[in-house]
Design goal:
nine-stranded antiparallel sheet; 2 helices; 9% helix; globular
Length: 153
């Protein structure tokens, strides 16, 4: 079902397949529509010289969309759409809010995220995935602008 087994949190960027290219503060492009948020310290919070370390895998149309989701910088979002053909098969039947909300536990995990009075996103979580939506009033056909993957140890 999930062919993302190559990604393990706290892996040094130099050990990931391909070449990581820094595109923002702690944001690295690692493939088509694929990014990671990386930090200089390892999972024990020690800077050991092997960093930066990838912490989560993010499928996004741009680094600006990631800044919106992770850093609350809505003004950095380019408002581009995510190309879902770049996301490996994760065993779901559709990307719409209607489809995703039917995943076990996803609707119960819905979160409204705001920052200093400004709307940022609504998210649904399912297993190791977090699906983020830009719209405040979600419609059934709305698709996420960003998908985070963070496998549990």
């Amino acid at each position: 079902m999930n062919n993302l087994s190559w990604f393990k949190p706290w892996t040094s960027l130099r050990d990931l397949p391909g070449t990581a290219r820094r595109v923002g503060d702690n944001i690295y492009n690692i493939g088509p529509s694929a990014f990671t948020y990386a930090v200089e310290y390892n999972k024990e919070f020690i800077e050991d010289g092997n960093g930066p370390y990838a912490t989560i895998l993010i499928f996004s149309p741009s680094a600006g969309a990631i800044d919106r989701s992770l850093n609350n910088l809505t003004e950095m979002d380019t408002l581009d759409s995510l190309n879902f053909s770049h996301i490996p098969d994760i065993g779901i039947s559709g990307w719409s809010y209607k489809s995703l909300s039917k995943l076990p536990g996803a609707l119960e995990s819905a979160k409204f995220h705001g920052f200093t009075g400004q709307f940022v996103e609504i998210s649904l979580e399912w297993g190791d995935f977090k699906f983020c939506f830009r719209e405040r009033n979600l419609q059934a056909a709305e698709v996420p602008y960003l998908v985070q993957y963070s496998p549990k140890a």
